[in-house]
Amino acid sequence: MNPGTGMPGHPDALTGPDTRTVLGAGDVARALTRIAHEIVERAKGVDDVVLLGIPTRGVTLATRLAERLAAIDPAFDPVQGLGELDVTMYRDDLRRQPTRAVGVTRLPGAGIEGKTVVLVDDVLFSGRTIRAALDAIGDLGRPRAVRLACLVDRGHRELPIRPDFVGKNLPTAVSERVRVLLSEIDGAEDAVVISAPAGGER
Known about the structure:
By secondary structure, this protein is of the alpha/beta class. The protein has four helices and eight strands. Helix 1 (25-43) packs across helix 2.
């Protein structure tokens, strides 16, 4: 779970007096299609593009983006150009959360050496997850360039990190929780919802 999401998505997240839906399924689909086109345009082709999803929801979003890239340009191979990157051991809050489970890193068949790597995450918040991802990539190879795609940028950055491709810029209060629901994971229709924590908890 990305720290920017606050809590895992669940159908119950769509209910409650302090919860509002800011993106519906159609909005999510259109945002991903637009991001895919922007990736192709900026890369001037897809021959050297690889997507690395950051668990959990970033992996699902990367898979969807890979399908869209292949539809836009058949030169993109969604098998050779898609992977996932676990950043658990590179996080700077690991000592405060020693029970965090280590996930899987699966590099694309094409590798990342000399490639344009597009990191994919659901919510960009403090930027610390992305810093951990950059550290992890540094141990795995030397890409030609690293870009960042996220479905939602909610602000409140603690590090000088900015997305190259973003589905929605979403101004929020620090105390609010932004949750991304994806049908493959949550069993609910795709959505992005904002909720206030119970009891005003921050």
